[in-house]
Structures
1.
Amino acid sequence: MAIRVRKQVEFSFYEKSYLPEVARGVFVTLSHFFHNLFGRRATRPLQTLRYPYERRVYPQRFRGQHRLLAREDGSPRCVACYMCATACPAYCIHIVAAESPDPKIEKYPAAFEIDMLRCIYCGFCVEACPEDAIRMDTGIHTPAFLRREDAVVGRVDLMSLSGQAGTPPAFGAQNYREKKPAGA
Amino acid sequence: MFLVVSTLIKLVVFALVFALGLAAILTWMERRQSAYSQDRLGPTRAHFFKLFGRPFVLFGLLHIVADALKMFFKEPFIPKDADRGIFRVAPLIGFCTSLVILALVPFGPDLVTERWGVIPLQVARIDAGLLLVLAVGSLGVYGVALAGWASNNRFALLGGMRASAQSVSYEIALGLTIVGVLIAYGSTELSAIVNAQRGLVHGFLPNWGIFIQPFAAVLFFVAATAETKRAPFDLPEGESEIIGYFLEYSSMGFGMFMLGEFIEIVVLSCVFVTLFLGGWQLPYLIGDTSSSFLFGSLFGVNNSVAHALDGMLVFGIKVFFMCAFQLQVRWTLPRFRYDQLMRLGWKTLLPLALANIFATALLTWWDPTLKILGHVGVAMILMFVLVVVAGPRRVPAESHGH
Amino acid sequence: MPSVNIDGTSVEFKPGDSILKTAKKAGIEIPYYCWHPRLSVAANCRICLVELEKSPKLVPACQTPCGDGMVVRTKSDKVKETQKAVHEFLLINHPIDCPICDQAGECKLQNYYMKLQLDQGPMQDEKAHKPRLEELGPYVLYNGERCVMCTRCVRFMEEIAKDRQLGVFERGDHVRIGVFPNKPLDNPYSLNVVDVCPVGALTSSVFRFKQRVWFLSRSPSICPGCAKGCNVKVDHRSGIVYRLLPRENDAVNQSWLCDEGRLTYARANDGRLTTAAMLGPQGVDSAAANAALDRAIQLLKPVADSKQGMAAVLSLHATCEEAYLFGRFVKEVCGVDEVALLAYADGVADRFLRQADKNPNRAGVTRVLCDLGLKTTDVASLCNKATSAVKALLVLGHEGAELERLAAWAAKLEIVVQVAAARSPLTAKAHVTLPATNWVQADGTWQNGALRLQRLVPAFAPQDAARPAHEWLADLANGLGVAFALSSPATIRAEIERRLPSFAAAKISTVPAEGYSPAS
Ligand code: SF4
Ligand code: SF4
Ligand code: SF4
Ligand code: SF4
Ligand code: FES
């Protein structure tokens, strides 16, 4: 990242006298005010989205709730290497590694938990994973949790999610503890 | 006896119904107006029931009710080591001083009745009215400073300190800007000032403070905004850095501060309207004669009551627009830095106010009919408009992407 | 002294020293896998090849002794090229599955790859496959694919453990390290091979998969396993100890550790007490630290007033500082003249590291108590006493074999106060339990069987209500009306030095990191 040096802006006397610019500023905000007051919103629509009634369709690269991918036989792809936990800036991934029954695999996560309340959805875990075992492509917005423990999502739940199927799940189907989201 | 009753009625009608009601509506206006100014929607959620399948939100007005309910039912929390007595009393101080100022403002023409004689539409007609406005107004900062101090919280204390420093600095400028008006109209009694603004200069220009004393009007507005701690002078709040003197307040204690802020807006508008916008008069139509223009022609009654109603209506409308203007200023300007604030108060406003006094005194002495003052005022306004419209514009710097 | 010129600087050497050793001393780095400072030279990995003037071929630095006037180049292009090539060879059959390898983070192969090779290597063919998970013994697992055949492990068993349990089997692509039929790697020093293995071929079944090493913090300490007092490094994270590694100390344990001592790491975690507890009508329940302290003071008050009827038990895991304060407390406050020592029974000893005495600080504790004029006895004889004469029992520590017996005896007593770092059978019987720090968290001094004074450095802060035992004792004394102005281990050490004859010359307050044996 290049470092950008901001030049100190030199103000002219006219600008420093402040009032004319204030007046202009008030005109600008007022023009927006009247524009919106008299309902000419078609030309410049309001930015407000009436969430939960209206929802934005998240883009394909939206980083939503994590999921763990499975191998063909249904066992987790994850090899419990802790790369994601190492990369995670929020220290919210908790893994317990165990000897895998498959000698070719060596390790597997006996427990794999993500604390969704600590997660900052940076996606570093996805970048770090050497096995492509974790993805954030479910399109699920973090649910609201009623209890702290609910926010710690375990391996089984993480593996039960699937990739984004277009639109996000409907409002109300958010808390997968009670109800699996659509497409699960 | 009659005096007491009439005063009480005036108090209730003006201070409680009008001012408090307007303040309550301002809490909604602030949100709605700011939202529209920023291309947002504003409050739309509070509702009690649905009408035709949609929540009945009444333009978001129900938020006022929701706010009030919330404030009343929250726990009034007092921090452990706070000074409990002062902590409780502090919110009331600012609130009360604002209401006292309202008592001095004339909100309509005198009511001339046969039975009771002349009833001034002003709660307290005091000869030193304007001085009292200044005196009581500066007491308001006690509420803020004490709240900050009693909270036993360093950030709250900082907020209180900022507020007192700011109000001390701007009080002087505030007082001096008014001197110009005093010179021009020759009275410190507010209804006398209003009456002095009757009539036209040159036959077309209303004899209003804003035309006679445009410079003082601007200075007054700036200094008074700083006194009321509104943006861009809201450093005592400074929510992004210190959160402010009411940091430890919850429930109605905080509610009092918030309502107090809006009351102050109303008070400032009232005083400004009285001093510079001709009070309850409307040139050509209301006040020049004692006949009623609006209610008189509407209902065919042409007596003093109709006349007074006209005046009150005009006064209310003027105050309303001044309030709206203050809100708009808040949503236009970012907050000052503290050093900028102090520099503006001491090095800009104070000398300018002094200069204004001398110029006004000179011109009034030259021509006591205020005609020359009017010339100069109008010239200044025109120049300002010219500068705003045709002044240089900085080409916006090339914007950088993310 | 003769000198050799390495990379342009002239370095003096001891006759007989290899180039690698001489360079290492001079701070010039030459990579090595198979060489180990405490093992014989095998010179089979060839990563240490350096250029020697007047020699037609490169020579292995680990094997070539220095000669006067030799000119050695370790950074020349030729050397670099060779190192890269050698490394390429080492990785030909290496799986490079670092993410799932326990050695990752402390692997020589990783470090040298980043330093010397840093490319893909031209190898296209399928790598040779070998057994990936072979149990060599109870604690050691072997992954043949990751082995670089440096034979350090074999040499360790042969030369240090003096027990040929490992050998090199097969040749070429099939070469592997292994044990002999029906002879598992069960030597009591077996886990050292995991340390010497430069890569992730040998892993400890105890530590395996528990943590990635880069998460661990490390601090120096002493092994509590026996009276040898081997120097260890404590690897811990978030207040949990994950393993002990040997810390080099020529005077004590060189770079080795016995398996038994290594596994004492679990003692630092098991049942650790973090809250005070009091015996109430519903049994033992946790309590606020202040309340427990007040209760203990209230219970001990009659004993302190009458100065009789008190029995004192002190664990041999206590530091000298704790022992000193404990001794003063029971003697001056409670009028005790005999302290029972809570100890582990004697165990196996050998001629290398392990001592029969399985208590780390018997020497220190007994000398401190003796100097204070206190008699010592053992728990068994204390428990043989009739309980009628004894009113109260004060126990410091929880480490020892006779805890069950002590607990059964203590159950009959009116007052039992315990200061301990972890739960023990006694905890269920104690009227008040005050949570103390264990040896990993303590700041103190231990004296090993050879009277060497060694310092314990706190690895991490005490959790919740736990406090160092000396603080509890000082508070108890304070509450009972005797003020000990001893707020920190340092002030206690200063007083020990002043007042105890055995330590007068021993300078307990200035024990260096590697320990110190008093002259006597
Ligand atoms: S998205 Fe970022 S914060 Fe969340 S688990 Fe992954 S690495 Fe951690
Ligand atoms: S980085 Fe991937 S494979 Fe490694 S532990 Fe995380 S999810 Fe599992
Ligand atoms: S031995 Fe070293 S290089 Fe090989 S897989 Fe393990 S960490 Fe990686
Ligand atoms: S197991 Fe380790 S120490 Fe033994 S030969 Fe292989 S790499 Fe060397
Ligand atoms: S270190 Fe010299 S050959 Fe291995």
Note: Chain A has a mean pLDDT of 81.
2.
Amino acid sequence: MLILRESYFIYVRNLKTWLAQPWMIVAAVLSSAFMFLFFGEPLRGITALPGFPADDYQAFLAAMVIVMAVVFSGSDMAMVLLTDMMSGYVDKLLLSPVNRFSILLGTLLIGGTRAMAQVLAIILVASAIGVRFEGGVLGILGVIVATTLLGVAMGCVGLIVAMRTRSVQVTVNSWLLFMPLAFLTSAFMPRDLLTGWFQVAVGLNPIEYIMVAVRAVIIEGWVWDSILPGIWILLATTAVLVGAATYEYRRATN
Amino acid sequence: MTNGPAVLVEGLGKTYPGGVRAVDGISFEVERGEFFGFLGPNGAGKTTTIKILATLLPKTEGRVEVAGLDVTRDPKAVRQAIGVALQEVGLDDLSKGRDFLELQGLLYGLSRAEARERAAELLELVGLSSVADRRVGSYSGGMRRRIDLAGALMHNPGVLFLDEPTTGLDPQSRIAVWEHLEELNARGVTIFLTTQHMDEADRLCRRLAIIDHGHLVAEGSPAALKAGVGGDIVHVAFNSDDSADDRVDAALAAVRDLPGIRQADFAERGLTATVSDGGAAAPAIMTAFQDANLSIANLSITRPSLDDVFLQHTGRQIRDSDADGDAEDRMWSQWMGVNRR
Ligand SMILES: Nc1ncnc2c1ncn2[C@@H]1O[C@H](COP(=O)(O)OP(=O)(O)OP(=O)(O)O)[C@@H](O)[C@H]1O
Ligand SMILES: [Mg+2]
């Protein structure tokens, strides 16, 4: 199909652009390693709390490091698109006879790829510091597939921000938008041990269910009761956000 | 390509969100194979018009057909038929020059082999072969314009839209681009070019439209437009210390009384007169100066330039407005987040 051929060309171009900026990749991996270091070490004692589900706090933390990295990658995608908009390259693509949606698809797919690469790197770092993945190789594959999808979904949020605002000052700060999504979660402590409004807010955050599922695969293995809600919510969130980004994109390019 | 002129514009108007009326009901046609110029000062509406013709910007009203196709109903076919190089080159700084061109080719439906071959050919043509494998971000301003132009040519379009293609080029590269455009035109490519340079319009375009504040103020061949100014320009320079003198007033009065003089004024330490026939009027003008006891340093007779045409139709010099203001505004609005559509 023509649209796939065109999307592929645009995807490869986006991939080259990303690989041409190795510092982006190094920084992404480093920031994840820092998370293990700066949160994992001081909070190690939490595992002694009654009711804490894991013996190894780094293993507990791994889900948070993975999901958080992917959530914040949405902000990077906003900047990626805005850069192309400001350089006029998006106009160049729009002047060509390619299907409008090939351009969108080629961009969303790079969001997924970046998320996937980053998650892979985090899993390597986690293994290096001794985290064991109870879900096994299949579990790791599952986590990678799920977080790639999440990367696409968060990329959609970033694209909407860039297209709506067309503004550098808003877009460079768009990580603020992702902060509640990432932190209103059981990132550091299981939900049962949280209290008050925070616990309520965590229950309303879709990202929480995805994080719970990823964590289950890592520290417990295939516990479907924890995993299935995460899968449904991930699929629903992705569908809604891809729909919203497509709508916004159609509006912006007409 | 289908039938019809290369460009057909009828009653085209564009009001930007926010209320700026950039194009206010213009109509014109460009024949196939023509070299057509769109001449106007900063903010006249040139870029707005070209973006509408190139399907990048929606029009507010009017009818626009390019290559015989309606830009609103059939944008994809229009895009395939045209090549576009915008005023703000839209380059991908992190890609290599060659990759940029090859991708352009692929997006217009060339096969990989065709794209590779055509890119090499165009790199040669625009003189960028030696830097083809360097990142576009490292190119100079002139090189960027040239790679952008090459990108617009990848799919051999029948109609070419160029928005100020030589702005920012050194004189040598400018002439190289001109020669290349003339060659393309000779091969049958229709060219629609905007410019604020009179000399460029004069040299290249077989026909021009002059746009100012969103209106077309004149249209025709450069020769016809200049003939419309009516006659020649005679400029007489005399010694500067004489300029405050009574003798100058006497000379001016005498010149104004001569037959065939349309207009005579002091300008630039001398006298500038518009006359129906410069050769015939010059001796009488010299006599008038002699009678007033003024020594002439220099006398020149020139045909009117497009500058004079612009002056005649708008009462202003095209150079009055300043080019950098717009670029700064653009930076600022991008930073602040302004809807650019
Ligand atoms: N996105 C926009 N939103 C609002 N007004 C705009 C926009 N783009 C252009 N304008 C306004 O429309 C008018 C015409 O602008 P345009 O860019 O078409 O002029 P131009 O003839 O290309 O000028 P220049 O020689 O400086 O490139 C100007 O008053 C400009 O400020
Ligand atoms: Mg312009």
Note: DSSP finds eleven helices and no strands in chain A.
